[in-house]
Amino acid sequence: MSLVHYQPTILQGTTKLGKITCGADGYYDMLAGGFDAYNSAGAFYDWNSAKPHFDNSSHFMRRVSSNALFGEDGHPTRIPGWTNDEWIVRILTIDPDRKSHHIKEIYIDPNGFKNKDGNPIFAVYLRLKPIGARAQVLADSLENENINTAFSIRCLTKDFTHPYTKIKIKIMQQIATFDHVDEPGISIATKYNNPALEMREVGQEDIFTRPNIKSAMDYVRKNYSGMESESVLGSLESLMETTESGLLVPKQGILRPANRPVTSNWR
After folding, report:
1. pTM over 0.90
2. Which class for 145: exposed (0-12), middle (13-18), buried (19 or more C-beta within 10 A)?
3. Rounded to whole angstroms, how far apart are CA atoms 131 and 144?
4. What are the pLDDT digits (tens) for 48-74?
């Protein structure tokens, strides 16, 4: 009886070994996502709305500069029976039991990849180190040349359908972090490409309204304290500002080029 043998082919024909270099400080440089890119379902992740979140003055980048940005092993999942308050706060917090890495720096590169339309993808690179209760899971994945380690952005988005192209466009409302995941939503978002990104939707439109955000802020003040409370409240305040300003919709189609942003220092 003959046997059928399967093997991965993603690295065949290349000189890559499936390994990435770890710096002397224990941090890895990892491709973690991209904007102006399509996911497997054909939705387009808009750089125009994402760019302000990568400016040094944004709440998200202040967390990076203060060494306070961590990620988890896997995205959060909504527990049946959770209120909107509980769900939005869970998206914006890190579960200590699932913490897997610290993100030291973030870098945006518009020159490494192109989307299916031939336009630049704004690739997101992270400098990260396995840290926390699930650190070993991530470390084993990074060091195993047979595992195509992937990361995915955790964020709050609003979607709209472009009136001419009919393409679903994901508009960035708030970035929480980048998590370690089994499979990327966008094909470039893996260790083997390292040069990973898939947006995290809330799934309920009304969670972005002013009353819902204010309710979540009251929930945090009542149930959280200390630095964790300040961090989540800061994210909710930033979300409130984004909600007040409305959707950042591209004015000239969905493939308009943008300038490279100023982010944290990258060495």
Report:
1. no
2. middle
3. 17
4. 999 999 988 899 999 999 999 999 999
